[in-house]
Amino acid sequence: MTKNDFAVVGQPLPKVDAWAKVVGETRYADDFFLPRMAYAKLLRSSHAHARIRAIDTARARAVPGVYAVVTGADLPPVKFGILPVSQDEEALCTDKVRMVGDPIAAVAAVDEETAEQACRLIDVTYEAQPALMSIFDSLAHPEVRIHEYGDGPNVHKNVALQFGDVDGALAGADLVREDVFFFEGNTHLPMEQHAAVAQWASDGKLTLWSSTQTPHYVHRVLAKALDTPAAHIRVIATPVGGGFGGKTDPFSHEIVACQLSKLTGRPVKIALTREEVFYTHRGRHPVLMWIKTGFTRRGDITGCHLRTWLDGGAYGSYGVASTFYTGVINPVTYKIPVYKFEGARIFTNKPPCGPKRGHGTPQPRFALECQLDKAAEQLGLDPADLRRRIVAEPFTKTANHLTVTTIGLGECIDKVVEASDWRAKRSRYGVTAAAQGGSREEGSEPPSPKRPGIGIACSAYMTGAGTAIYWNDMPHSGVIVRADRSGGVAILCGATDIGQGSDSVLAYLTAEVLGLEPVDVQVFPADTSLTPVDLGSYSSRVTLMCGMATIQAAGRLRDAIFKAVARKLEVDPAALVARERKIGVSADWDKAVSFARAVELGEAMHGVLAFPGSYAPPKRAGKYKGGGVGPSPCYSYSACVVELTVDEETGVVDLRDVWVAHDVGRALNPLLAEGQVEGSIYMGIGEALMEEQVFRKGLHKQPSMLEYKSPTTLETPEIHTILVETDDPEGPFGAKEVGQGPLLPVIPAIANAIHHALGIRIDEVPITPDKILKALELKRRGKPARVGPERLPLFTFKKPVVVESAFGQPADTIGVRPFQS
Amino acid sequence: MKVRIALTVNDELHEALVPVHKTLLEVLREDLGLIGTKHGCELGECGTCTVLVDGKPVLSCLALPLEAEGRRITTIEGLAEGARLHPLQQAFAELGAAQCGYCTPGILLTAAALLSERPGPTRQEVKEALAGNLCRCTGYTKILDAVELAALRMERIRT
């Protein structure tokens, strides 16, 4: 199909929910007010690590207006967690707290104030234990155990994978670089704080409205944690006011609201405060990295060896997946013939980390792209040319057995190089040019302390995880499309709109297939009792997986209607087309029947018109232990150029322009695709320059939106988005992901531009002014002008799983998918 | 202690009996049912809860309803004229300036105050006016574009 054959796809249409959002009608979870509703608050631990010796709730229960008080003893004695291998959380802690903010008890009352006041009257007797606040602390104190499970004392996960003879490849290289990087943790900071409303009705059935990205997983966890049949539980994901991965875990407050509703016979709401959201977290892991890469004189990579240490925080969350993600995606971008990855996730007494936009991959991306910049400099190569040269081959496999389909990275690099005027600025700006007076204007003005620089980086990201959180052979995404004699079409799908526009994509694709306008399609999302399962809004999976299921379901509806119209018009169904809300034969369009009439004919012929669509990714997991993390139907690619100035006197970085070219496969709606790129760039800027989730003695140092710095309109530069289309055979009408990938190259591109401006290397993020000034001071003293981690933990990785490298093997042009026919 | 208050919100007079310390944000949402006003921090840091009081942006999470008595309060529900959307609302919808939409009401009202005071603002002036409103989805790009488009359309209507 060429671009011109589409009616809806490719149009810059408003989102289907845009109108409700601009008039304030959209109802988020905290906007639900039900009759007789009680308000609940959680009592959270003030200790980073302690045994709970006693909990006395008597005083709280006596407060007028209190309906119920619960502790862990009132809940079924089960642990839960998002991953089957890390069931380590309790809705309310019973014997131990592992972080400040761990929930211990909850109160439901007539209003929030009363609930809060009663919480303060709950007496908890703690027996404090040493708090382990860093990777180094936790490894140095094996006698203090945060959890009793894992791959060693305070080691949640220890993995090692090797693909081919990496030591041999490094030995044969012209240049071998070893570098160490640190990426500080940061958090999602969605504008909406998490909220949930539970109603356990008198018939024994439970409904939960929650601001969640994953209603299906919440559904499963509620059944387990409340010991109640899943068939009696309904989870409705309300429109989510920003997620970015922060609403992807099942949470304590969701379970507790349900239990309190059961006890009180009332609907119960729990709305987290902003401070609670900082502790609930599940954001970016702090990661310490060591990377050793061999290069030929011309810039080809001979092999790469990466080690990562993740500071996981107090619980498992998605951590096992996060650990793998720090290692498995880098080889998708460039030709890396042999590869070795060792990773470890360490428990600490901090809020648990999990998935944030780019899940586990921005950290190693930062390491690799900064290292490439250093190698290019040593080899005397232009960093854009070096990257262009080593772009991976489409339709091949990587060293670690990932199947890659289309790759638009070469075009992305060319586009940003051209749009940013890279070559001219690269030679005009920068420390070398400055030394020659190249960047200063002639004249009497005193030289500005603001040094200009320009940097580049690239990346790749997955379009949906190839495997579910729990192993199963069922669809990852399902939809039902129904039509009736009104001419109306409804689509039911478990997908959750978190602002990315998934409701809109469902409507666009249905309209495209049926020849309708998006406004003709009603979307019913994210209701576990009504909508077929979709696994959730994570891993950039929704457009592809729900999209493919939608095309299948809408196609089945169209086929049924075509059959009936063909009989009426006495033509071959294959001759029919659906467009402009009509169905007919192009050559004889006057006889075309209206869509509503066509549905009548269809209903008369077939009965009720309701058709399912199912999607599961092609099964391409590598045949080795750990091969399940990383496979994806296809991968998106991004290239980024950043232009900035750095003030030599203050260390302040001022971003001027950011260009990102992103291979989106096909932009189903270029407006929304651009919006995802812009938001990703913005978020990358925050991570690069200011955002950090840091703690002192267990307490978050900046648990507020004022203290936790994030970019405002004034720090966000002009953003230039270029969409590259490669029409991927795996995606719906060729589409790949766009919601996460474009964040990845921004962070190293900024670091590389700062180096270009001043000749200093800041090998850790965020790159704050103090680090820049420190590096400049080192430079002045003639020392290596680098600020970054100085030491690595003493740690023994597992013996690696050794597998042959699959690098360069041809990939199937299109994978065989379950439920395809 | 509860007090009786009378507030003029979106040109309608509302009376309510509320605890004296309740914020304007809480009264709007919980007592008057105007849930279009959102909250992001309840500490006056994010701009999400912005409403207009006598046409000026005010953080409703820091304002007491008593202070707003006798003044003209505008919430997102009052930005459109009946069924006719404000040009800002139209432009935000058309250009994809609302992603998750949670910060949108506060940003629309702040921008509306800017445009009524300064009809043809420069991009820098728009940035400065919106610097107190955080958005985590859009990178602000489409928001700035939409404010500029609305300003242009309003200019055309006037001339």
Commentary on this structure:
The complex is a heterodimer of chains A (821) and B (159). Chain A has 821 residues and is α+β, with helices and mostly antiparallel strands. Chain A folds into three domains: 180 residues, Alpha-Beta Complex (Aldehyde Oxidoreductase, domain 3); 360 residues, 2-Layer Sandwich (Aldehyde Oxidoreductase, domain 4); 142 residues, Aldehyde oxidase/xanthine dehydrogenase, molybdopterin binding domain (Aldehyde Oxidoreductase, domain 4, 2-Layer Sandwich). Chain A is built from 20 helices and 34 strands. A seven-stranded mixed beta sheet of chain A has the order 3-5-1-12-9-10-11, with helices on both faces. A seven-stranded mixed beta sheet of chain A has the order 32-8-13-14-15-7-34. A four-stranded mixed beta sheet of chain A has the order 18-26-27-30, sandwiched between helices. In chain A, helix 10 runs parallel beside helix 19, helix 15 runs parallel beside helix 16 and helix 18 crosses helix 19. The longest helix of chain A is centred in the last third of the chain and has 28 residues. Chain A is globular and about 85 Å long. The two termini of chain A are 20 Å apart. The relative contact order of chain A is 0.13. About 1% of the residues of chain A have low confidence. In chain B, helix 3 crosses helix 6. Chain B has two domains: 77 residues, Ubiquitin-like (UB roll), CATH 3.10.20; 72 residues, DNA polymerase, domain 1 (Orthogonal Bundle). The relative contact order of chain B is 0.15. In chain B, a hairpin with a 2-residue loop joins strand 3 and strand 4. By secondary structure, chain B is an alpha+beta fold. The chains are: A alpha+beta (821), B alpha+beta (159). Chains A and B meet through helix 1 and helix 18 of A and helix 3, helix 4, helix 5 and helix 6 of B.
